[in-house]
Amino acid sequence: MTTLRSVTRQLFERLRDETADVDADFVVAPTSLDETAAVLAAAAEVEIPTTFLGGGTHVGYGNAVAADLVVTSAGLNRIIDWRPDDLTVIVQAGVPIDTLEAEIASRNQTAVFPEIASGATVGGVVAAGLSGFRRLRYGPIRDRILQVRIATGYGKVITGGSPVVKSSTGYGVPRLATGSFGTLGMIGEVMLKLWSRPMATATGEVSNASEAYAETYRPLAALETSEGSFLYLGGPDTQITSQARAVGAEPEPGLAWPEPVNAAIRLEFRVPARFIRPAIDRAKRLGATRWIAEHGVGRVDAGVGAIDPKSFAAARAWAESTGGALVVVATGDAGVDPWGTPPVSIEIQRRIKSAFDPSGICNPGIMPGGV
Amino acid sequence: MTESPDTLPSLRGRSLAGHMDVVAQLAELLGPDRVRAHPLDLLIYAKDSGVSSGEAAVVALPESTGEVAEVMRIAAAAGMPMVARGAGTGLAGGAIGVPGSVLIVLTRMNEIFEIDEVGATAWVGPGVINLELSNVLENRGLHFAPDPASQQSATVGGNVGTNAGGPHCLAEGSTIAHVLGMEVVTADGEVVTLGGAAPDPPGYDLRGLVVGSEGTLAIATRILVRLTRNPPDTVTMLIAFTGITDATRTVSEIISSGLVPAALEMLDGPMIEAVENFVHAGLPVEAGAVLLAEVVGHPDCTAAEASLIREISARNDATEIRTASNEAERVLLWKGRKAAFGAIAQSAPDYYLNDTVVPRTRFVDVVDETYAIADRYGLRLLNIFHAGDGNFHPLVSYDASEPGMTEKVIEASHEMAQAAIAAGGTLSGEHGIGVEKRDLMSQVFSPDDLDAQARIREAFDPLGLLNPGKVLPEGSRRFDRPTT
User: Fold this and answer.
1) How distant is the Cα of B284 from the closest Cα of chain A, in angstroms?
2) What is the predicted pLDDT for the residue at B483?
3) Which residue in A81, A128, B262, B360 is deepest, having the highest Cβ count within 10 Å?
4) Residue A277 sits at the chain B interface (C-beta within 8 Å)
5) What are the backbone dihedrals phi and psi of residue B60, each rounded to the nearest 5 degrees, phi first?
């Protein structure tokens, strides 16, 4: 690894010297965590700002990053150890979530990854902290990351968490890593807790998602969208049918998820669940053409054509006043801070960042407050 | 074990006069009633419910966030370590004092501030007792899911400190899955809110780090808990087997069938006998093992799941399957499980409780090996398991007044922990590390892993004043340590 490290450093030195005026990316695809750590150690030594790439489905999420080096997870593409009898799997970051879900579906299991994020990778979804609609039933993604292996910004491979479904052993490093946007290093491998898929599933259109959610015991999801409101149920056939009919829905077998909100600018309201209705209204007033609201969760994903700074600022101020946030995910420059007011713990956040990435090379500035 | 935790070298031999000054400042802040420095008072707080004991210089009993922050500023200014403590039901020595420390006892901060029934959340003080919270919520159709055996006296703040579990965290997850946000005071006395009721707060999940950090990162002064809807139907079953092997195989088959019951608990023969003698819950004393299985949800679902569990149990030679037909019977079935530790306290003067976790597929092997270790040491072993999630509590009952006995028990217990680790498991499922398991951490984490955790600690608490000597072994911080 020492040889790799010194060769990589020489390459990076040349990259830095020769491309100073050129907007060029240098792409590497390590095939192990150790290689990734060696690459990052070398990048740190010559201070090359680095970003990470999985499936590329969420590029543009967070503050813009000016990186000269791209480390992709394409070479970390193995499902290492699926233990169906234990409902766990160890998987590398570059595995597409659809591939993993398809594999474990053979034993009727699911990692509860986002349902409509086709092309996303395990590493990307964990780094961005993306939960699927079924979080209403199974909890957010951070509840399922049992263990992580990270190549840190200081060039070491570290393992955090425990390889079992329950642990009070040391700090919750997997939770820190989930949603850390590659600012601590590269998440190379994770161990996930899996769930069995329900015996049967069904989708029913309802007139009022909020009431349907309140009157049903633990549905998989209750979505209110620009195309209608839907209740998603799982369990034995008889239960699905009786629960759906109780809220006036005619259940169709299977889970018919909405189409993704594909817009150049997506607004994400994240508010306490009781504020979901006003959040939907705000999204509409901001010009949302398509939107998906998660009842019981408090998230509204809305697509808009452009942002009017004044009404956007008012909506963000409202979202923050509820204790939530209004996050912007844009493929280009939307003209606003994607995150909003930094968290009050920003000083600790900065210290965590520099503890894992002392040279500040890993996705510099992508997080709230430019962390 | 009488080992006292390591402390910062600079604090050793600190003059009593220095402490007296702090005691005076604290007394001025809180009044003399809520500051205790008399040796007899300190003795009351010397232990938790485990076997370690510690010492503090002074005990403070704040009643508000502002007071906690002020206490911490006074302690920090004097360079004194700070140890947060709830009801003291912990088993790993996480909440015992360290030499020269201010022990911050949070039991008086027991207010429930706000309950949001629609959002199913509540803001509570760290001193609120776990079971009292669920009792208060009962008529609203909600409960707080973590239910450690100590729930009648354990505080929510303590649950947060250890990431406490309990039988029902099999399906619902440990405390970490039920804490959405918190107000904490950092080592320098700053009050900071982490997380909140909205999903996915932007920024690092510091709340996820503080839960389970045993008071080493910050002290929680208000906690936003997620509440769980009471299920429309509950089926509780007691399933008896002639031996432990049939029971463990049943557990493995239930889990691999994909069913995640609300709870799946197991007691072995010696434990059944001890419990039955104590609570007279009608447990089958002739059984070699019993499973307590509970499924919750819509009645159609519970019926299907219960019947699957019965089928798997029968296939594995269950000798008896009892189903609680009403709430009173259900409470009776649980009574045996919940009274286990009280029962042990009656049957032997001392006990040492392990808390290892293994992958569920390795459960059968590791349980066998644990019994073999106890046999080799000639120790009496009773077992109680959160079988569904592979978390088990081999419990050695002994008499500490026998010379050398405590050392022998600890040695055997460490071997049991090693057996779990060798099978791909870990040190603690719900009790935490404290001082008890601190020096075993290097068996589950590499030096680089421990260094990463020490970095996190340093980011929160640069001066190392919060619960020093707990959780991470000495020398965990290794690389690029700042020289300042």
Assistant:
1) 29
2) 45
3) B360
4) no
5) -120, 140
